[in-house]
Amino acid sequence: MSRRAWLLFHRWVGLVIAGFLLLAGLTGGLIVWYHELDAVVAAELHHLPTRPAPPAQPTAPDRFDLRERVAAAYPKAWVNYVDLRPLEPGRSAVFFIEGAIPPGSREHRMLPNDEVFIDPLSGGIVGERRWGAISQGWHNLLPFIYQLHQQLALGTVGTWVFGIVALLWTLDCFVGAWLTLPPKAPRSHATSALRAARRGWQRWMPAWRVRWRGGAYKLNFDLHRAGGLWLWAMLFVLAWSSVAFNLNAVYSPVMKLFFATDDGPVPGPRPKADQIEPGIPWRQAHRMAQAHMAAEGRRLGFEVVEPQALSYDPHKALYRYSVRSSADVREKFGSTRLWFDANTGELRRSWLPSGRHAGDTITTWLVTLHIAQVWGLPFRVFVTLMGLVVAMLSITGVVVWAKKRRARLAAR
After folding, report:
1. What is the pLDDT of residue 188?
2. Confidence class of residue 274 from pLDDT cuts 50, 70 and 90?
3. Cβ within 8 Å of residue 355, ≥6 positions away
4. C-alpha dihedral over 160, 163, 164, 165, to 10 degrees?
5. Residues 45 and 113 sit within 8 Å (Cβ to Cβ)
6. What pLDDT is recorded for position 107?
7. Is the dihedral of CA 230, 236, 237, 242 positive or negative?
8. Scanning 142, 201, 282, 371, which has the fewest C-beta atoms within 10 Å of its C-beta?
9. Quick one: pLDDT at residue 122?
10. Cα(87)–Cα(157) distance, rounded to whole angstroms?
11. How far from 232 is each of 169, 213, 236, 393, CA to CA, in Å?
12. pLDDT at 57 over 60
């Protein structure tokens, strides 16, 4: 394709995705701080009220006691996820619930709320909300912003739309960078390859500079071009990892072309119908999960740092146990996990986020960089600023197009 064809591609793809990236950049910069901001905006749900010290109790309810209390309080719901991470003092425990599937139906019953907050000391319900439903009030602001960032708050349709936008953005990362290269200059036989490369770099250097005093149009143009060049690597990380989040049907086959991955299904038989209750009780399953994880750690050479969650899948009659381990690169929310039969306890499969398959390691790093879960506070600030950069590139791109369009119309 000619340079003009690639320029048209960059122009029209940029215009199509500009509004989406503006929204994604601004919301993404906020949800880097999701847990901190949500604890402020929805403080009545996350923070327990100050009260006199309760009378001494023999034992405080554990997470599985709390799960049973939530299940008793919501008899039309499934409580199949138990967060095992340590709780901060004065903070409520959170349980996500989903509507049960009525007999003869394949759809989950719609619940008015699907996130329950419970006092870990008394076992009392602190509050509830339907995650992301901004109509319920300000306490759902951060979940709503999260949904906007991930799927335009439109569910499956929004997920696909943002996935296609992310794929176009990924392709445009390469096209936009290539368009900054100067046209190839004729090279004489007497010119060495090193000298030609040096001259090419000298001709490319203006693309990396911003003319702060060249007028509004030049400033917009340079911010768009130079900003995209200086931060190209991180822009590509955000774009391609967004494809992984929203359009895995494209991401996974592409990665498998170049790297080994381990993303197959969990082996073993599946029940003919949903098994609502696991055959192995939750506490016993937790002990089995710990034993399985310890054995896998010895076999594969990793150490468990912190438990994350135990969940049950009634469609497959499987428990899934997640921990943060030495194979994780995230500072929080580890993704080292295994699956075992909820009736027999037989280990079915384990998965490591890094160090076992190159494709999984790369994906883990892409996702971790995207959600700013590595390198502490400085990198979280950097990713927040990257959200503003994405918004800036979208705006300046539209401004440059509008200015050139006016000039073309005036010339006609």
Report:
1. 58
2. confident
3. 302, 327, 361
4. 120
5. no
6. 78
7. positive
8. 201
9. 87
10. 35
11. 12, 24, 6, 12
12. no
